[in-house]
Amino acid sequence: MTTRTAMRRLTGTAAAGAAALLALSACSSSSSDSSQASDSGKPSGSSSAGASSAPAKLSGTVTVFAAASLKESFTTLGEDFQKAYPGTKVVFNFGGSDTLAASITGGAPADVFAAASPKTMKIVTDAGDGSGTPTTFVRNQLEIATLPGNPDHIATLKDLTKSGLKVALCAKTVPCGAAAQTALTASSLKLTPVSYEQDVKSALTKVELKEVDASVVYRTDVKAAGGKVAGVDFPESAEAINSYPIVALKNAPNSAAATAFIALVQSAEGQKVLGEAGFLKP
Fold this sequence. Notes:
This protein is an alpha/beta fold. The longest helix has 37 residues, at 3-39. It contains ten helices and ten strands. The chain has two domains: 60-139 and 243-276, Periplasmic binding protein-like II (D-Maltodextrin-Binding Protein, domain 2, 3-Layer(aba) Sandwich); 142-239, Periplasmic binding protein-like II (D-Maltodextrin-Binding Protein, domain 2). Helices cover 44% and strands 21% of the residues.
């Protein structure tokens, strides 16, 4: 064998080795990248296992029927949900829990129901319209709402029974109205309001418009109203704290989004928003 031929063979062998080394390196790099993507929660698109473990993409409208007292906090959570899931839209129907429950059992299309009391939630679940077991996600306590500055010097629940004082209450079938009746009974007080309102926001608006001197609402509503009303705590409210349950609905048009919205409400982020609004922990 000539020296030149030996050199050619050696060079070819080295080149093949280098090519093999580069191929091995590329495979190693690809494996490393795939592992890092999986660790970061973003599986490689070429991995069928990773793709199957990724959450399903949500889209479409999710309709939430919720107690009127949840309006401000749920509106915020709805915006957060839409940012987290581009392509979705959250539509709310806020009102008295009893009215909402009647609408749901009457066939109104909705994905989620958040009630202001277990009693109104039971209307839906007894009718077989709930999916799964309702979960309490917050609680709420009553407060007296008065005109700014509290010109009538209302300090106790008994003060609402003063002659000539105009008071609005929620209807007795509405959770805030039922809670007010519980507090009045615990105090052995009788109160005849000038009006019974169909939801807590309507009772609060009566004070804001100066149509009444006071109303019994939730602390969260007084807080949401800002300087439009003044709030007066009363000890009897501790006897009438309402638990708020939430459930996905059996015939939800968008069940996947319903589940995701409820998860947001129960998450640390959701609980923070609700806590800042004045709701109590479940």
